[in-house]
Structure prediction request, 227 residues.
Amino acid sequence: KQEVTQIPAALSVPEGENLVLNCSFTDSAIYNLQWFRQDPGKGLTSLLLIQSSQREQTSGRLNASLDKSSGRSTLYIAASQPGDSATYLCAVRPNSGGSNYKLTFGKGTLLTVNP
Amino acid sequence: SQTIHQWPATLVQPVGSPLSLECTVEGTSNPNLYWYRQAAGRGLQLLFYSVGIGQISSEVPQNLSASRPQDRQFILSSKKLLLSDSGFYLCAWSNSGNYGYTFGSGTRLTVV
Prediction:
């Protein structure tokens, strides 16, 4: 059974700092990994999607890496801003089998960027 | 472009009352559709998923049911709500290609 762990559970940084959020998964047989952002009381917004054959994806100040063999992904946020404050979730999609539609989510990292 | 609509945004219902939450997707055909529940401190839990009209798979035995009467419409229902049904319900869609999941804006359900 796939398990996804996100560390740390909460992180508070001053504005302008670069930061890294970590995600680990126990089963390396994944189809892809997706990072989401969730603001309080809102739905999930997709940030980056990394296919299993890719090593990283970039969007603006965000960079996500994937090391499938070690079961790890990181989300790097450069020059953090107060507007980046949110919960960040990673989710993996399994590679095959009847359950390959189902994402397994981590519990998220609550990020607070202080002005 | 594809969009997903979910309503209502908030709902307060008494115990024992029925429930109907609706989700529709635009701009794509034959999507895979999902209902998730997010409870405080418990993460996201997959409740139902559907790969086609009338095809529903249930992940967790519960007081809820789902239906897919049309290709891009997914409905979450209950005949009698329990206090434990309170939570944040999210609809999502994906397709069979190399794309990710897209989530709706969610419904906050409070059962009183």
